[in-house]
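Thread: quick sanity check before group meeting

JM: Hey all, I'm pulling together slides for Thursday and realized we never actually wrote out the predicted structure for the chain we discussed last week. Dropping the sequence here so it's in one place. If anyone has concerns about the input, flag it before I start.
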Amino acid sequence: MAGIQKYWITVVSKDHALGGVTGGFIQINHGSQAPLKRMSPGDWIIIYSSKQTVEGDVKCQAFTAIGQVTDDEIYQHKMTESFIPYRRNIKFYDCNETPIVSLIPDLDFIKNKQSWGYPFRFGFFEIDKADFELISKHMLKAEA
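JM (edit): ok, ran it. Output follows.
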């Protein structure tokens, strides 16, 4: 895998995140192709779910899935006649849902600890390796 491995966070409701985990894909920012093009095979992606469901208001505020980009393919998937979002294949790993609150003080990508939700408004962004390692340490289940 050529290039430097990168680490990404995307914001997806928990119900949609679980659908992506089951299907082995990621769909970002309402099916936009642009963020998918920024990723490369071997890159890691963490899903942050601010809400339990896309339509609801019940908060989740946890990292709900973690995986790696498997290939270079970006493809469209017809969900309805008028909605044909772009997707990318991801190998998701068995993980623990990890609430964000206890990690906020130690995450460098969160500059303002009082307004910690701000970075997530972008829906998709790169984080550094140290932040990835902190989050993934809590998420990834130890092999028994």
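AS: nice. Residues 7-139 form a domain with the ph1033 like fold fold (CATH 3.10.590.10). The chain has a mean pLDDT of 94.
JM: adding both to the slides.
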